[in-house]
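Kindly go through one protein, given below as sequence and tokens. The question is how this chain folds according to its tokens.

***
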Amino acid sequence: MSSSFMTLPRELRQRILLLSLPPVIQPAIVPYFSIPAQNLLHISRIIRQDMYWVINTYSPCFYLNSPSHLDVFLSSLNKDFRILSFDYAPKFAHASLNIFHDAEVETMQWTCYCRGRGMHTHDELVDAWAAAVSSLPSQMRTILLDITPAPGPMRSNKPEWVPGFIQDRRISQKFVGEHGGVLLRLIQCIHERFGDGVAIQLNGQLSEKSRSALDAFIDLSTAAGMDVSFVGDMLAVQPRVPRPRIWKAVKKLAPVRCRWIAEENRLVYLPAKEGQERLVAGMRDVNWSVDTQKLWTRLANQDEAWVVALLPKFGQFKMDGHLYEMDFLPMDNRQRALVHNMAKDLGYESQAVGEEPERFVRIEKYADNPLIRD
């Protein structure tokens, strides 16, 4: 492989070596070559000679999390690094500013409801970046503003949470619009500092539901004489999954009732009423399986009264401490499958008894019988 690589034209080899360096790096990380590129550099004198062009051309985009770290980072640029055996003086021409890295989850979610109420907003975070613009070196060519509405620790430690957080209704519909004014001030500061010599782009992740607010902000920037574009990712809106009908049936038969006690300044939950409501109330917190939910919905579309009648029957079996076995009426195979699944979700054993068309389901809770448990 190395011999084939060395037969390539010199310009192509240099481009490949340049691509082996990371295009975006954190300030605390020294640029490094990928392992295959390191191996080639160690074994080939010709390729090592190509490195002089690569080092002089390499200009990564530095990802900055906080304006408070900017001075420390800029002072580190005066130092010479070594990439393998080659001296490297970083060129700070491209930067990505993580605008909302220091925000907190709670304040970020509730910002859209806090205007004019004396509560926390994120103007101070954006203004801190605006104040730090004057510290950026004059050779800047590209400034990316990462406007992802998610805190930095979440993006670093729990990246799987970020898409759901961004798709939150409050975040997706309000966040960009609420911060449009202060973000425009930041862009104006950058434009005043560098003029048209710097390309200003928005990046990061936004929900597709933020599209209209983002387009309005870009139009506002254009009207102010500043060319701004969004080069990040728009997360597609996931279709809303309706709540399984089995939960709705439980809630309808056994609604949660509460009463506010003004004297004690607290909310009190009332016990379920006697009868059917009390029987079904014990199934409010059951973690129904996906198969159970699908079967329930499918059969409810055909005969909702029949599937709803299963809930008080299971509730009676669950609450009666002296009932260890119960037989259901004969039913077809799909109905039996639903009863089997519900019994499994509730922790009971079940079996089909008899022959068609009189075949029925028997559920058992022998494991709960103190006489048999021992």
User: Anything to note?
Assistant: The longest strand covers residues 94-98. Confidence is low (pLDDT under 50) at residues 111-120, 368-374.
